[in-house]
Amino acid sequence: MEQEGYAEALSDTTTQLEEQNGVMLLKRILHRDSLNEAFKRVKRNKGGAGVDDRTNLFRLQLWVQTEPKRTTSR
Asked: In terms of residue numbers, what domain contains 33?
């Protein structure tokens, strides 16, 4: 009986850690520096267009510059 309680607590802790790791990863991805670096790489590599044959580089750059609340800072 007691071992089941330990297993359940361990499972809950593992789930919480996985969720925290996911949140931290998302914060790193959405960090303004990460988005700017991704933009520069795509632009430098002359990134391919999407299925509609249009690139959204300008829109991405504009979004990063004008939406500071949606990007994160360190």
From this structure: 2-66
pLDDT in tens, 8-44: 666 777 777 777 777 888 888 878 888 788 778 777 7
Q: Which residues contact 42 (CB under 8 A, 6 or more apart)?
A: 57
* Token code pair at residue 2: 């007691």
Q: How many domains does the chain have?
A: 1
Task: Say if residue 35 is exposed, middle or buried (CB neighbours under 10 Å; 0-12, 13-18, 19+).
Answer: buried
Task: Count other C-beta atoms under 10 Å from residue 32's C-beta.
Answer: 16
| 74 in a structural domain | no
Is residue 71 domain-resident?
no
Q: Given this model, what pLDDT does residue 54 score? A: 63
Q: Does the pLDDT at position 45 exceed 80?
A: no
